[in-house]
Amino acid sequence: MTDASLSPLWWHQSTIYQVYPRSFADSNGDGVGDLEGIISKLEYLKALGIEIIWLSPIYASPMDDNGYDISDYSAIAPEFGTLADFDRLVADAKSRGIGIIMDLVVNHTSDEHPWFIDARSSTDSAYRNYYIWRKPAENGAPPNALTSSFGGSAWTLDPITNEYYLHLFSRRQPDLNWENPSVREEIYKMMNWWLDRGIAGFRMDVIDYIGKQVDQSIVTDGPHLHDYLKEMHQATFGSRDVLTVGETWSATPGSALLYSGRERKELSMVFQFEHVTQQWDEIYGKWRSRPFDLVKLKSVLSKWQYALSDDGWNSLFWGNHDLPRAVSKYGDVKGFPVESAKMLATVLHLLRGTPFVYQGEEIGMTNAPFTKIEQYRDVETLNMHRLHLEAGLSPEEFIKGASENGRDNARTPMQWTSGANAGFTTGIPWIEVNRNYTAINAERAVTDEQSIWNHYRKLIALRKKHSVIVYGRYQSYLDQHPDVFSYTRSLNSERLVVMANFSARTICVDMPNELQLSGSCLISNYNPIDQVPAMLNLRPYEAFAILAETD
Ligand code: GLC
Ligand code: CA
What we know:
The protein has 15 helices and 22 strands. It is α/β, with parallel strands linked by helices. It folds into 3 domains: 16-107 and 283-457, Glycosidases (TIM Barrel, Alpha-Beta Barrel); 114-166, Oligo-1,6-glucosidase, Domain 2 (Oligo-1,6-glucosidase, domain 2); 473-549, Golgi alpha-mannosidase II (Immunoglobulin-like, Sandwich), CATH 2.60.40. α10 runs parallel beside α14. It is globular and about 75 Å long. The two termini are 21 Å apart.
């Protein structure tokens, strides 16, 4: 199949903006962001060029994991608003050409979901089999060694019936039993109920887990995973023109083709993490990270670009609500905060796939500067703190890991203005505001022609204008260069050359012949350049893209 024969879909040239409602905009001064707050910022998102919003969960929830623990799938959490507010958000967004995709969290529910409350009450409950229960091992221990992503065993003994239930996240997030057809039917019904309200699709939370086979300790890529997705497709969104994104930590290029292959009738795209987990330690994961290695990062990004060049579709992102701030992780917040943020955006947005912007990334928000465990709110960080300290890690070492990779880094309130609480709330924010808001804020960014925000706005507009960015064939160059990322995208006679310096030094690059092209500069973070010379000097974190005509 050639690039040109890929039939365009409405979302191919769109950029998705992720809103983490709790931290986005608080309209009533209770310190928690809400739907009314999001509605008040739609103009801001429209000005940025956003066409799709991914809304992190806004359903009724005890908020053990900030809404990823749902107690009622068809109600809105009161702190976020009402169903009427939600309908207004969908309508107001639609009138600005923006679709809303919801977070679908169906691997697990909250332990306060009526299904679980009933299920745990008795082994005879009609809902017992909605969840995953096992008898204790002979010595009373958990049935097997499966662990929770938030630390410790994935099994909790429930005293009422003296059986263990499975939770691959916190003990307040019991896993649903997807092998039970009634569970699947209930979920499909619920999905249709939301689709009927006019949403543009779903982002599917840890969807690679739903085919799990616990007795064989298989969590991801279980034998029925793709059958369930096909069934879901057919029962819900298959007949509608919507967008579906699968959060799939375990995806490989091979499985991505199963999830997102055009003839497969499963999902629109995968959201996989191989490029952002390169620095994780094999044993301690993100809590002890290894030095940044650009050659490795490029090899992962390139592998995915090549593997999905004829079929399948990938997401493009540096961060989200589970990951550190991009500019803190891969850029240089001290020396070159603006240049490095623009560079990161440039190399990512010109790849093939759908770019995601996580709230605040577009103004260069940085990691939370927390130094004490009391400042953290995240259930994962707090659990891990307890477990790691029990295992002998010093509090200082733990805070060092958390301050680099903890999830609260990206959950501090959106920085709207230089006023009190960054303009996020008139009350006391649920988590501290990053003090750098007086310099880094949206109000300032939108009026500054040279801001990171305006750079994002240009990149988002370029994708809509140039199909070479959407469909062009990817080719990487200088793969072994430790500081420079260089690639081309080609479609028919057009060739886009993208160059980026990932270091704080000026780098002199001996350019391959094929890249010594001249054309028009689509974007740059220093002065525009329209010709690639044989010897190219790239200034600290410099990035640019030139569009050339070839024959
Ligand atoms: C996903 C979410 C994360 C959540 C977890 C459990 O990874 O992005 O925030 O904690 O699933 O729902
Ligand atoms: Ca509020």
